[in-house]
Design a protein that fits this description.
Number of helices: 31
Helix content: 40-55%
Radius of gyration: 28 Å
Strand content: 5-15%
Structural class: alpha/beta
CATH superfamily of the largest domain: 2-enoyl-CoA Hydratase, Chain A, domain 1
């Protein structure tokens, strides 16, 4: 066997070590299932073996199923369906049911198994552990267990919905399944997901101790008289499921069939014997994996994102070590950049105009870590070690040996130019300089540099420590060395890089601005204010455009528009801006309503428990239409179509050159309806011809920005799709 090794000790305890060659983490693929099936048969037949410890030879237990295997399974299903639909469905169910049968064979056998979870165990790998009779988990703070399948359009398919619902109290079980949240060791034990928590090096010894202590080879639900925490026929059970369905509908707006199917698995599975419940789960898994939502989410949020995280866009130049990073500007963004950089193990020089400002930026890291310590997610020693990596100073001379310097100062070309010149004066010549500007073209900023070849954009999103996307912007003169180092840096801080070419607003902000502009147009048209954010969320956006605008700040929107007017001149600027929008935002700012930071924007931000409430006087700015006369689908389409059309324009203009980055960037950058797989996947899912026709329809009523670009018209005429026409090889050549 290439994936597993087995060793039996004098006590008859067999230790199975799972260690897939050539992979950083274990995953379940066909070879794993084939070998594990043989192992189970051998153990059943070997009378010398009295019990089994299942562990990993890697630093983590396992990351779940190999989703490329599921893509292959679905491709075979589609091919078979064209020949015989019934046979195809049976084949899909059999493939889905195979893991359930295999794990049930472990669970219902006559020998006890203990999972020694020496690190993170997610998805199908955690389901393997759940099928064992005992579970020991490392108390390492990085170790977590969970079932995150819901995040990629799927549901747990190895008994997860049934075992969790029988182990954990009902509310926690449903929350865990629907949110896909992973739990650390202490919480996992509290919930009943694991039995013991021990230091990392003791998991195997503790597992053996459990076996020697007489652990019975029987799951709780196989014991006579077992009563599940969730009795769906009890008043509490019926109330919980009704509330759970209501919350699920509120959170998903029925956009995610997998979430609905998870609730069905729990509801139906808890009414029948366990083996029947596993069949129910497998049927719903087979149903879910066929959905367009699952296909789109697997492709964008697993396959594409994994490729980008591995440096798919990195040029072929030698790697340089990243040891020391400079950060100019210790405000909210700069402080966040310093924190994630130090957390990744690099030294940081954090510079601001005076020592107090620099110290305040460093203190942000201290406060963040103190909160983590209170939640028992970190320790004082780790906090102190991270803070020791950040040097707060005003001295630009300390940048001389930095590999990379990131500028995160005020969004003003003059201020940024001054910073660039001061960094150049301290530079060794090989230093890469990056601007964190959110809208100003990198080529314009590079004019202040004496080495434009080493000048690049690294655009973080706020809050830096939580947002997983970083937009890397290439100016016309930016060289491959700068791009390679920027990608290496972003992957080192464990974020996903997308590479875009220079333009005003780059890619993500161009799309976000379209989203907010559509909301401004609706306000001006008189669409009732509550409908705007509510219908945006119903369309699949995690945050309504007005809420997002408040978070970004209305005065920032005003500054961006004024900067555009100043840079392009009024005539050219008004080709990309709407005078009505400028007037609307000016009016809001004049009222002092600049956003959440001031406690008032489109919403009034009150202390809890009241929270955010729409500004009551907002309706006086523009006449409101009759809410009953408004087509809800029209509003939802306007939000998704305006973003998708801007993504096409960016692709057509060469701002984005890789369709993977267009989709992943929109989802990670501002949460574009994840169930669609991203804006270009959204178009493919509707069909380019149908999308183009609907865009023309919207343009006839709501403006030229809905008119489909020439590329889209051409593709509609030829019956093409983005993922059909633009292969990765073509994308690489274009890049």
């Amino acid at each position: 066997m290439k994936n597993f090794a087995i060793e039996t000790d004098a006590d008859g305890i067999a230790t199975i070590t799972w260690d897939m060659p050539g992979k950083s983490m274990n995953v379940i693929d066909i070879t794993v299932m084939d070998e594990f099936e043989k192992l189970v048969a051998e153990i059943e037949a070997d009378e010398e073996i009295k019990g089994v410890v299942l562990t990993s030879g890697k630093s983590t237990f396992g990351a779940g199923a190999d989703l490329t295997m599921l893509q292959d399974m679905l491709a075979k299903f589609e091919a078979e369906k064209a020949r015989d639909a019934d046979a195809a469905m049976q084949m899909l169910f059999d493939n889905a049911y195979r893991l359930n049968l295999l794990l049930r064979r472990v669970e219902a056998g006559d020998k006890p198994w203990v999972a020694a979870i020496n690190g993170t165990a997610l998805g199908g790998c955690f389901e393997m552990a759940l099928a064992c009779h005992g579970r020991v988990m490392s108390e390492d703070e990085k170790a977590t267990v969970g079932l995150p399948e819901v995040k990629v359009g799927l549901l747990p398919g190895g008994g997860g919905t049934q075992r969790v619902a029988r182990l954990v109290n009902p509310q926690d079980a449903v929350t865990m399944l629907l949110q896909g949240k992973a739990h650390r060791a202490a919480k996992a034990k509290q919930l009943g997901l694991v039995h013991e928590v021990v230091p990392a090096g003791d998991v195997i010894a503790k597992a053996k101790e459990m076996l020697k202590g007489g652990l019975k080879p029987k799951a709780p639900w196989d014991e006579r008289g077992f009563r599940a925490p969730l009795n769906i026929w009890s008043p509490d059970g019926m109330q919980m499921l009704a509330a759970g369905n209501a919350i699920m509908r509120k959170e998903t707006y029925a956009n995610y069939p997998n979430a609905t199917n998870i609730m069905k698995c729990v509801y139906e599975g808890m009414q029948v014997p366990f083996d029947t419940a596993l069949k129910i789960e497998s049927r719903y898994f087979a149903n879910t994996i066929q959905s367009p939502e699952a296909a789109a989410m697997i492709r964008s949020l697993f396959i594409n994102m994994q490729e980008l995280n591995k440096g798919a866009r990195r040029p072929d130049v030698p790697k340089r070590e990243l040891n020391k990073i400079g950060v100019i500007g210790a405000g909210f963004m700069g402080a966040g950049i310093a924190y994630v950089t130090a957390k990744a193990g690099m030294e940081v020089v954090l510079i601001d105009r005076d020592q107090d400002a620099a110290d305040k930026g460093k203190d942000w890291s201290r406060e963040t870590l103190d909160k983590a310590i209170k939640r028992k997610h970190s320790t004082e020693e780790k906090r102190d070690a991270l803070l020791a990596k950040i040097e707060a100073t005003t001295d630009y001379g300390k940048l001389s040996d930095c590999d990379l310097v990131i500028e995160a100062v005020f969004e003003d070309k003059g201020v940024k130019a001054d910073v660039t010149k001061q960094v150049d004066a301290a530079s060794s010549g090989t230093m890469i300089f990056a601007s964190n500007t959110s809208t100003i073209p990198i080529g314009e900023l590079a004019e202040a540099s004496k080495n434009a070849d080493n000048f690049i954009g690294i655009h973080f999103f706020s809050p830096v420590d939580k947002m997983m996307l970083v937009e890397i912007i290439m100016a016309e003169k930016t060289g491959d060395d700068a791009l390679a180092l920027a990608i290496d840096y972003v992957t080192k801080i464990k974020k996903t890089p997308i590479v875009v070419n220079d333009t005003r607003g780059f890619y993500v902000n161009r799309a976000v601005i379209r989203y907010m502009q559509e909301a401004w147009s609706m306000l001006i048209e008189g669409v009732p204010v509550p409908m705007i954010d509510n219908l945006a969320r119903a369309a699949g956006m995690p945050v309504g455009p007005l809420t997002l605008n408040d978070a970004v700040a209305l005065d920032l929107s005003q500054k961006v528009m004024k900067q555009t007017l100043a840079d392009l001149g009024e005539e050219e600027a008004l080709k990309v801006l709407d005078k009505r929008h400028i007037d609307l935002i000016d009016t809001m700012v004049e009222h002092g309503r600049v956003g959440k930071k001031a406690g008032k924007g489109w919403y009034d931000y009150n202390p809890k428990p009241v929270g955010a409430k729409l500004w009551p006087d907002l309706k006086t700015i523009h006449t409101q239409q009759d809410a009953d006369a408004i087509d809800h689908q029209e509003i939802e389409d306007r939000f998704l179509y305006t973003i998708a059309l801007e993504a096409v324009r960016c692709f057509e203009e060469g701002v984005v050159t890789d369709i993977r980055e267009a989709d992943v960037g929109a989802i990670l950058g501002f949460g574009f309806a994840p169930f669609t797989g991203g804006p270009l996947s959204f178009i493919d899912g509707i069909g380019v011809e149908a999308f183009t026709a609907r865009a023309n329809d919207l343009a006839s009523r709501h403006g030229e920005h809905f008119s489909p670009p020439a590329l889209l018209v051409e593709m509609a005429k030829n019956g093409e799709t983005f993922y059909g026409r633009f292969s990765h090889e073509e994308q690489k050549q274009a890049a």
